[in-house]
Write a structure and sequence with these properties.
Rossmann fold
């Protein structure tokens, strides 16, 4: 059943203070890919891996703040093609060597490179997909998982968010998502039954015309950011929002046109591999990007997990109730 830890507006936990990394590097994982990684917090603390969302989102300083810096060795890594990893998708990185199983292998290479024996794995949104896939491949090196905004990357989930389901809740934002498609294919075609929005975006994001590609990337990314929070908040995309948008949209679309490359290794079908691992699942009741049913199904397949459904939150990690439960969870996993 869902967890019942105390959660009132007066007692909600807030992020730990801002900190800087004490160690950074670029890890060569082959295929011409160099991954940015960093460690912050206690160099001798319990290792924890932060697995960012997207795919293509990258890490930010705010991600370090979900963990007690006195207790944890906090490890962040930018996945292939995004953030500070190179080559960047906005610079033409080859997406043929960017799949779920490449990313799973990258995380294991990072663990070995850093000399980590076992670590806590923390993931949100797409980060839950990757964290679960990684744990199922390497259960012996994972001591537990903290997961937020569950995304299992099933075709039904892509249909819901990118092919019209969520439009019933955000019809105004959906018009912005449709705008580049209408400009390219016409309104009648876009609204015709069977029109594949994701495939059409793939064509626009790789059409060879920079202006069209950027316009499509902005629209794709804006649709997700607009629907991610229960209450609107400004988004900080760094110094170059178009560069972020192009990587985010291209990488996400690359994965979502290929069912995340999961093939015959669907997450829920392989839960026996990690059934023994402790886990805390946190999910916003009003998450439009990844509906709460995803978390409910994962929890049902994982009897030892704890589920917290946050009654006043959407998808984002920064929602106050979600932040509260995540920090409660990472504190509980401290040695």
């Amino acid at each position: 059943m869902p967890g019942s830890s105390r959660d009132t507006h007066a007692t909600r936990r807030t992020p730990y203070p801002e900190i800087e990394p004490h160690q950074t590097g670029m890890l060569d994982v082959g295929d011409g890919q160099l991954l940015y990684w960093e460690c912050s917090g206690n160099p001798d603390g319990a290792p924890v891996l932060f697995v960012h969302g997207g795919p293509g989102g990258g890490t930010t300083p705010a991600h370090r703040r979900m963990f007690d810096p006195a207790a944890y060795r906090i490890i962040l890594v930018d996945q292939r093609g995004c953030g500070r990893s190179t080559p960047h998708v906005a610079d033409g990185a080859d997406l043929a060597v960017n799949t779920t199983w490449h990313l799973v292998a990258d995380l294991e290479r990072l663990r070995e490179h850093l000399g980590v024996e076992t670590w806590l794995v923390f993931g949100g949104s797409w980060g839950t997909t990757l964290a679960l896939a990684y744990a199922q491949e390497h259960p012996d090196v994972v001591r537990g998982l903290v997961l937020r905004g569950i995304f299992l990357c099933r075709p039904s989930e892509i249909d819901w968010f990118y092919r019209g389901g969520a439009a019933h809740l955000f019809p105004d934002a959906w018009e912005g998502y449709l705008a580049p498609l209408v400009a390219a294919d016409g309104a009648a075609a876009v609204r015709r039954e069977g029109y594949d929005h994701v495939a059409a975006y793939h064509r626009l994001l790789h059409c060879g015309d920079p202006a069209t590609e950027i316009e499509a990337a902005r629209a794709w990314t804006t649709w997700e950011t607009t629907t991610s929070t229960l209450l609107p908040r400004p988004r900080a995309d760094g110094d170059d929002p178009d560069r972020f948008a192009l990587a985010f949209a291209r990488i996400e679309n690359h994965y979502f046109t290929s069912d995340a490359f999961l093939g015959g290794r669907a997450i829920l079908d392989r839960m026996n591999r990690i059934a023994h691992l402790p886990a805390v699942i946190v999910h916003g009741r009003y998450d439009v990007v990844c509906p709460v049913a995803n978390a409910w199904e994962l929890h049902a397949a994982w009897p030892g997990s704890q589920l917290h459904i946050v009654p006043d939150a959407g998808h984002a990690m920064a929602e106050p109730g979600t932040t509260h439960h995540l920090i409660e969870a990472t504190d509980a996993f401290r040695p």
